[in-house]
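User: I've been trying to design a sequence by hand for this structure and keep getting stuck. Would you show me what you'd pick, starting by listing the structure so we're on the same page?

Assistant: Good idea, let's start from the same input. This is the structure you sent:
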């Protein structure tokens, strides 16, 4: 999932470079959402890993 967030961020940078601000804004929003989902899932996996060891 982090890979998709990075891909959308790169798409946003390229779109902004060429002046497509609407596409860039959309790609940035998608990248943000995917990044936060990745963070939540990572934290959940970390907590579950600590609770299963005990």
């Amino acid at each position: 999932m982090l890979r998709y967030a990075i891909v959308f961020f790169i798409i946003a940078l390229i779109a902004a470079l060429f002046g497509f601000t609407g596409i860039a804004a959309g790609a940035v929003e998608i990248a943000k959402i995917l990044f936060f989902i990745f963070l939540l899932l990572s934290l959940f996996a970390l907590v579950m890993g600590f609770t299963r060891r005990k």
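That's my pick for every position. To get oriented when you compare it with your attempt: The two ends are 29 Å apart (CA to CA). The chain is about 90% helix and 0% strand.
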